[in-house]
């Protein structure tokens, strides 16, 4: 096992184990991937430990295999701060028997989330015959017509705008502030109260002032091969540009003279020297 906080970390939402989990990999990578898959979370999985755990491959072979497992979408290396109260960082390797795309790894490692929340029901599918207490957002929308008749909304209008209004209340807005913001400085005539209200709900959405109850852990992604810290978009298959074998970016052009200008300048110097006394 690695030191507490270090070592292997299993990625979430993996498919159940099967005999064909690593059939798409070469024999060496499949063998080591199966070995890593059966290690418990927190187990050391550096090249030295992997070379000791099995008799077939040495450290260099294990290093190459880990790089190929990264490009196949099975693992990523990260530096992770374990607490927002101190500066202690740990080094972890996230492993998934289910291969993942670069986009999945980037989203998971930067946000801690593995899927997006379900979209709200379309307005036409929402029931308008409410037998349960209405939400604060729906009630505030329904009360706009009482504050100013120019923003009188129907039940269908309130149901359609409820998700937008709910975002206001999730950000700490009270009913009083909501009504004041929506009804302030209204034009003399409003031909479409629902359209006007939708525009204001979007344009005047307050900032998110509520603190996070559980701040996300800070993570820095590393290149699997050379362990260089990288930004997520700079990694392809978990490898940095240099380890991918990509050519370095061209150096910026200097402000020097062009070859033609140099030759013309040299010709003038030679002519001046030939005609000088």
Explain the overall architecture.
It is built from ten helices and five strands. With 277 residues, the protein is an alpha+beta fold. A five-stranded mixed β-sheet has the order 1-3-2-4-5.
Q: In the CATH classification, which architecture of one domain applies?
A: Orthogonal Bundle
Structural class comes to alpha+beta
Described by strand count, sense and barrel closure, the largest sheet is: 5 strands, mixed
| Strand order across the largest sheet | 1-3-2-4-5
**CATH top level class name of one domain:** Mainly Alpha
User: Which fold name is given in CATH as the topology of one domain?
Assistant: Arc Repressor Mutant, subunit A
**Roughly how many Å is the radius of gyration?**
31 Å
Estimate the global geometry from the Cα principal axes: flat
Q: Residue-averaged pLDDT, rounded?
A: 81
Overview features:
5-stranded mixed β-sheet; Arc Repressor Mutant, subunit A; alpha+beta; 277 residues; 10 helices
A few lines on this structure:
This protein is of the alpha+beta class.
Topology, please?
Layout: E1 7-10, H1 27-37, H2 47-53, H3 59-71, E2 75-81, E3 89-95, H4 102-111, H5 136-142, H6 144-147, H7 155-170, H8 175-183, H9 193-203, E4 219-222, E5 229-230, H10 259-275
Parallel strand pairs: 1-3
Antiparallel strand pairs: 2-3, 2-4, 4-5
Helix pairs in contact: 1-3, 2-3, 5-7, 7-9
